[in-house]
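Researcher: I'm comparing several assemblies side by side, and this is the next one on my list. It has 704 residues spread over two chains. Same procedure as the others: predict the full complex and return the structure.
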Amino acid sequence: MAYNFKEIMNQEERLAPGHRMCAGCGGTIAVRNVLRGLHPEDHAVITCATGCLEVSSFTYPYTAWKDSFIHNAFENAGATCSGVEAAYEALKRRGKVKDNYKFIAFGGDGGTYDIGFQSLSGAMERGHDMVYVCYDNGAYMNTGIQRSSATPMYADTTTTPVGSESVGKPQYRKDIVDIIAAHNVPYAAQTTFVQNFKDMHIKAEKAIYKPGAAYLNVMAPCPRGWRYDTPQIIEICKLAVETCYWPLFEVEDGKWTLNYEPKKKLPIEDFLRPQGRFKHLFKKGNEELLVKFQEEVDRRWEDLLYRCAR
Amino acid sequence: MAIRERLSGNEAVAIAIRQINPDVMPAFPITPSTEIPQYFSSYIANGKADTVFIPVESEHSAMSAAIGASAAGARTLTATSSCGMALMWELLYVAASNRLPIAMALVNRALSGPININCDHSDVMGARDAGWLQIFAENNQEAYDNFVQAYRIAEHKDVRLPIMICQDGFITSHAVENIELIEDDKVKAFVGEYEPEDYLLKDGEPFHVGPYAVSNYYMEAKRAQAEGMKNAKQVILEVAKEFEAMTGRSYGFFEEYRLEDADYAIVIMGSAAGTAKDAVDKLRAQGIKAGLLKVRVFRPFPAEEIAKALTHVKVLACMDRTESFNNECGPLGAEVKSALFDAGCAPKVINYVYGLGGRDVTVESITSVYEELIKIDETKETGAKYRYLSVRED
């Protein structure tokens, strides 16, 4: 489908300004661009896990959300959204609701990969007509930058601090899109803020309007946690994609598709260097760590190419 | 004409749910409440109800989905027991603070450990401060009748709080007893349509639920909940009155059994009250002035009314089917004593822990409690105020 950047960006915003998220936060960029996937005539009920997004956008008595919105707890956005969607089915059938609604849940990687994982898995498996969006900034940022299972290896976080006996997080990150795809949902995809949001817009619209459960994994950099120069967010996202650290792909009805292949894959150092959380990797004597990081990125990239070529 | 049947407590509650035909039911099985979603699923599968049933992957998700559905404007319920309700614990508070009139069929069972599937009240008592209305049943008939009254209380505009309709695991949930059911159309008319003021799916009016509210607003939210709980007292009595007009069966905050002139009394909740009534009858036959107060409504707690009913009692036993580990008394004992203190009347009060994990409660064991009360009155020596009934001490 044709993507008209100007037209899409000029749509009425569904997340009002004046919320309390940090300047340059990737979370709100993710939210606004997912909501642009909604057709203007459709209503939505937004579910939100506890996290930066919730506490900063719905601080009583103010709200930044123009659509109906529910926050329940940290670990249950999937199940909460299931309940809302089931109520819609019941009330629509009984003639008590006339308008058309779509159901979108937002959670950070803490509320998605970790504490909310079971709730998400249940909602995906049951196949509710909803989209779960993870704005993945790779750590528990709301509580002060603790590691999550989405945190990249070697990242310096407040629970994996770099020290004389530590080179940061010891484990690789979890590939959640693979896991959600293994639920055999109609649609699961990964994206971030590149190509003037074209990739993200197409995926958001598809996820919202494809019947059944859908999942979107959006890399949403956090300037505080990642420690890069805040205005560089789009450059950071581009480097994540060009180094194949954050591939753009989708799994639709079981078919894996790579949506973008860099002409020349950049070395992982290019993505890591601008970020303070990886500063220690560039110290003398840590060359081996960069090699290991690169090997893991390569292995996962090859694996993805294999799946998409099938 | 009312329908005479023989049913287990679980089936009776499932029938009440079918008659009400709510909008959404998320549930996860746990003994001994499993049969409720099972029976109800078979009603849906056979076209006898058209509720949207969500077969969630845990009780945590059952309460989470119930909150979502109720906030969206749906009449919602779930059923659970014991560890299942404990897993919901965080969300019980969320449901109450969002003023969502969710109904829970709670079949009381001991909390682990050791893991135990039988009756006690440790599950429900653990949630006594969560902001839910809590109503108890002695038998199948009461469990059914209470469920029919549940939404009328919970959804009342002056209340708007979630409600637990409790019955004792296996003792009433699985035992088959005679019961009188109300006709479907009468139940439907009695319960009526759910018409919330604000909800997520209200056409043309976006609605927001679950804000972040810190020290400048949190306390007012709690105060408003407390007001709902206060108002619930009047509503519970009004609904009971209407229910009596329909069925002839009378309900209040509690039942007084041969209590009016009793010197020796016990306060008890749930199925053991039936056994205790037999003990009272036997003692009365011997000329002993024994009586009983069976608490039906634990939240809101009818403190003044209970104190008034017990003023004349010489020695009282508070029977708790749970431990509170305060070395003094269980939760029922604490609340009853507090009520008596405020009323300025002070019968001697002994606290008993009984029936934990399904430990048998017999006419003999309850009789032994009355015998202890008489001994205290005769010797004027209270002895230990906190006792275990029917337990091996060595």
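Model: For your comparison table: Chain A has twelve helices and ten strands.
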